[in-house]
C-alpha cells in the first residue's frame, strides 16, 4: 500500500495473490491454514520485525482460536487494507458481561488522561474476526500511548486501582513509547532499574532513566 507502513499491533488484510508476495516459505500445513483464513476475509496482525528486514517487508501473525500461532513474512505489496488496533470502546461489545464494569473504568481512565485506549490479544481477535477467542481466564491486553511521563505515572496508578476493584479479569498490556518501543505496564509499575523494551525491530533491556528521557521535559 503506497505511503502506508503498518506498525506492530496494526491489523492488515491481504490480497488474493498474497502467496506470490511471500518473502519466507511456509510449510504446506501452514500455507493451507493461512490460505483458508485469508479466503474468509479475516485479517492478520503486524508483529515485531526482524533486524535484517527491509522497509518493504512485513512480519505478520495469525493466532488461531485453538491458540496456535502462525507467522508470515511477506512483501508490503501483499497488503490491501490497514486498520489500527481497536479501541476498548469498540471491543467491549464482544466482551463478557462480567468484564463490562472493568472496561468502563478503563475507558473512564483514558478519558481523564486524554488517551485513546486500544486493545490487542484475544479480545481484539474476537472483534476483528467474529470468531470466538475469549476464554474464562483470558486477559485484556491494553495499549496506551501517553505523551508525557507524568501521564505514564498517572496511568500506572489508575490501572493498579482499576485492577484492585475488578479482580474478575486481569488487565494486561503495554505502554507505547515515543520512539516506537513498548513496555509491559505491569512491569513498568514496579519501577525496576532495568526494563525489557520491545521495539519495532527486536527487543532490548533499557534503564528506567532512559525511558523517562524519551518524553518531553515538563515544567
Automatic annotation (TrEMBL):
Entry-linked InterPro entries: Holo-ACP_synthase (IPR017557), MdcG_C (IPR049180), MdcG_N (IPR048903)
Keyword Coiled coil: no
Domain of life of the source: Bacteria
Residues covered by the Phosphoribosyl-dephospho-CoA transferase MdcG C-terminal domain: 90-193
Domain Phosphoribosyl-dephospho-CoA transferase MdcG N-terminal span(s) in chain numbering: 8-85
Keyword annotations: Nucleotidyltransferase, Transferase
Entry-linked NCBIfam families: malonate_mdcG
The protein's name: Malonate decarboxylase holo-[acyl-carrier-protein] synthase
Gene source species: Corallococcus praedator
Amino acid at each position: 500500500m503506497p505511503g502506508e507502513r503498518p506498525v506492530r499491533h496494526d491489523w492488515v488484510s491481504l490480497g488474493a495473490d498474497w502467496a506470490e508476495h511471500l518473502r519466507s516459505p511456509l510449510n504446506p500445513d501452514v500455507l493451507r491454514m493461512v490460505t483458508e483464513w485469508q479466503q474468509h476475509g479475516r485479517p492478520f496482525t503486524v508483529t515485531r520485525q526482524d533486524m535484517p528486514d527491509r522497509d518493504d517487508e512485513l512480519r505478520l501473525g495469525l493466532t488461531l482460536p485453538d491458540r496456535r500461532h502462525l507467522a508470515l513474512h511477506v512483501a508490503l505489496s501483499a497488503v490491501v487494507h490497514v486498520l489500527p488496533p481497536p479501541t476498548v470502546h469498540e471491543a467491549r461489545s464482544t466482551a463478557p458481561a462480567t468484564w463490562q464494569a472493568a472496561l468502563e473504568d478503563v475507558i473512564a481512565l483514558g478519558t481523564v488522561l486524554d488517551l485513546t485506549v486500544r486493545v490487542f490479544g484475544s479480545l481484539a481477535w474476537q472483534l476483528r474476526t467474529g470468531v470466538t477467542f475469549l476464554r474464562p481466564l483470558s486477559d485484556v491486553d491494553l495499549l496506551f500511548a501517553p505523551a508525557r511521563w507524568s501521564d505514564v505515572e498517572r496511568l500506572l496508578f489508575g490501572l493498579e486501582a482499576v485492577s484492585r476493584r475488578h479482580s474478575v479479569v486481569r488487565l494486561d498490556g503495554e505502554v507505547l513509547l515515543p520512539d516506537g518501543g513498548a513496555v509491559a505496564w505491569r512491569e513498568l509499575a514496579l519501577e525496576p532499574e532495568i526494563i525489557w523494551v520491545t521495539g519495532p525491530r527486536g527487543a532490548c533491556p533499557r534503564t528506567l532513566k532512559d525511558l523517562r528521557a524519551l518524553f518531553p521535559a515538563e515544567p
